[in-house]
Amino acid sequence: MSKIPLPSQVRLSSARELAASARPVGESAPTGSGVSSRLVYSSDSSGEFSASVRSPFEMLVQAAKSVQVAHAAAESVEPSRASEPAPSSRAGAPDSLAHPQRVRELQEGFATLSRPIVLIGPMAAGKTYIGSHLARFYGYEFLDADHVIVERYGEVSDIFEIFGEAHFRDLEYRVIKEVLTSPAYRNTVFSLGGGAPMTDAVAQLLKDEQVVYILVDAATVEPRITGNKSRPLLQPDPVTRWQQIFDRRSARYEELAKFTLDARGGRPISEMTAEIQSFIVNSRKDSNEPA
Ligand code: S3P
Predict the structure, then answer these.
(1) How far is the CA of 162 from the centre of ligand 1 (A)?
(2) How far is residue 72's CA from residue 76's CA, in Å, rounded to a whole number?
(3) In angstroms, what is the C-alpha Rg of the chain?
């Protein structure tokens, strides 16, 4: 993701004041079109994040395209490559794939059925990785709460160091609330930082949401966290700290989860995203059936 550089006064002024003047989550500077456009995050196959501005209609067309592209890719994939992520194909999709009827079906589905899909789980569980691929394969938007915080306020480690953890939790809560209470994010996979559900006010927001818990263990995350200084709570001994924190938090994750994805042992991404998608499809079917 191209990070907005942190001007020196941002570091020195209170992030609380900045919160008051910040733009809505995921929204870019005004485009002049009068239409509310959104800053959309995506990642390529190497895991690099990027951001682009899209109007609501473009997002809808894009969603329709990517559903069809994902289906076409799934049908044509060779068995030996079936476990690999689909190639980054959104940009190259021919325009004819955005069939008006499909766009309309998606539009109606937005209005009646959809809620964001919220990914929770411990640090380094792969929430961002799994969430961004889920979005790409099945035609959702993707948003990561930590990325929004970084874009608005600066690096997570700087916020912890300068303002303290309580302040970070406050910013985190506000971002999450803004996303979950806005209709603009109905079709969004929304990934949260590992500690977010421990804030009671966040847990309260999540209790009726489509929450997916990404379950991992220390052996799975060890190579991801060893030597990585980006998570202040894991210093100075990442694996021991990870296990201690996980033991304190796992009950809360379990309590909030509507679906648990077992991501232990580094499973193929296409298999994990397909499992989450089955849960989404089934729960939307259930909620549409008469009681
Ligand atoms: C945290 C997890 C981090 C980030 C911050 C605090 C936590 O996100 O929000 O460092 O308390 O578990 P990830 O779960 O994406 O690492």
Answers:
(1) 17
(2) 6
(3) 19
